Amino acid sequence: MNTPICDFVRGYAAARPARLHMPGHKGNGLLGCEALDITEVSGADDLSHPEGIILESENNASALFGTRHTFYSAGGSSQCVKAMLHLALLHRAPNAARTVLAGRNAHKAFLHGCALLDLEPKWLLPEGESPMCACPLSPAGLDRALAGQPAPPLAVYVTSPDYLGGMLDIAGLAEVCHRYGVPLLVDNAHGAYLRFLSPSRHPMDLGADLCCDSAHKTLPVLTGGAYLHVSPTALAPYEHEARQAMALFGSSSPSYLILQSLDACNRSLAGDYRERLTEAVRRLEQLKARLMDRGVPVRPGEPMKLVVDGWAAGCSGYELADLLRQNGVEPEYADPDEVVLMYSADVEGSDFQRVETAFSQFRPGNRRTPAALPASGARVLSPREAMLSPWEEIPVREAAGRICAGAAVSCPPAIPIAVSGERITAEAAAFMAGLGFEIVSVVRKNMSAN
């Protein structure tokens, strides 16, 4: 598969023109990559209105993912999430409310999108016991939730896979959504590789209307590279207006380093990527099995995550993370209950052995109950009103009873513990303190509703 963006930029750099244009490093600098870092010079195309090499590269990606069109993002999935919400708002049914039915483990980018677009989230809560980062949902539960709405939402928004590798029944959820005439939007930030499993488990192949992939999370792409996918069965105007929606929330100066990375990834995906992915999945499955034989509580879920439940092991995720670091392994994420390791088709053999060596020192303790997100506080302001109101920072220990301004969250996992516009409960304040939060932003008292 050709790589038009990479080829153009390399040719431009090799010609060594006088760079009397942005950026200011003029192709020289301390990082060593500056020669390939350009702007929209003649022939380089324009991400917001592509007609040449960028459009050609996106068409390559569209063919690989089997979409109506795949749009590049140099602003991560956060940009794509907001664009999805904007498209759903533009083309909502005449009787639809400005509400989005969303899994409670949504990334903060979702809440930011709601604030910017003046949308109201209505939360789908986990069905059964689940840790903070998870939100198990079923088609039957979604059916009940949609049936109970006073007016149809403009969309249903779910996260799959979630940060702990949990995967929802996207096909079943899509069938329910479409029966109600509501589009299904999927935050597939952690699952770009799912398209290349056999069979595919990607949302675009399971009935979702729109989804975003953080290509950089699981594919060989630089940080910030992402995709917005429009399904072949989605509303035709989504494709027509997605470019403008993306431009609304993205920079007018996207990184050409990231665009080259997305372009080069196409060649990798069209090459031996499936075979390398299959081998990595096989090796990780074997590692998981060996760890479970030793009593390590490995959480079931997506094929390329290794998640260990500290709560089931009788220790904290932080302690497990320290154990891994002592053996030269840096985990993706740890909290009081879990430690998360993310693999990919590009891992080395030692990446499996080091983890196994680390857990050879593991000794299980007494199980405990995982910490779930506390119940939501009373809604006082909309997310938009709360985020755009004057705010102040206060110690978490003084936050109970105050109205949350910015989403109370750490990244990762970027899941709000207290939601903008809701009154912070004592339970939420204690939960934040337990995660190491020291301050939280709240609406100033003279702006708060009674």
Describe what you observe in this structure.
Helices cover 36% and strands 12% of the residues. The chain has helices spanning 4-15, 53-65, 76-90, 108-117, 139-147, 170-179, 215-218, 236-249, 256-270, 273-293, 310-313, 317-325, 350-359, 383-387, 426-434; strands at residues 69-73, 99-103, 120-124, 155-159, 184-187, 210-213, 226-230, 305-309, 333-334, 338-342, 391-395, 439-443. The N and C termini lie far apart (61 Å). Strands 1-7-6-5-4-2-3 form a seven-stranded mixed sheet, sandwiched between helices. The protein has three domains: 47-252, Type I PLP-dependent aspartate aminotransferase-like (Major domain) (Aspartate Aminotransferase, domain 2, 3-Layer(aba) Sandwich), CATH 3.40.640.10; 274-359, Aspartate Aminotransferase, domain 1; 383-447, Molybdopterin biosynthesis moea protein, domain 2 (Alpha-Beta Complex), CATH 3.90.105. It is α/β, with parallel strands linked by helices and 450 residues long. It is built from 15 helices and twelve strands. Strand 9 (333-334) and strand 10 (338-342) form a beta hairpin. The mean pLDDT is 95. The radius of gyration is 23 Å and the shape is globular.
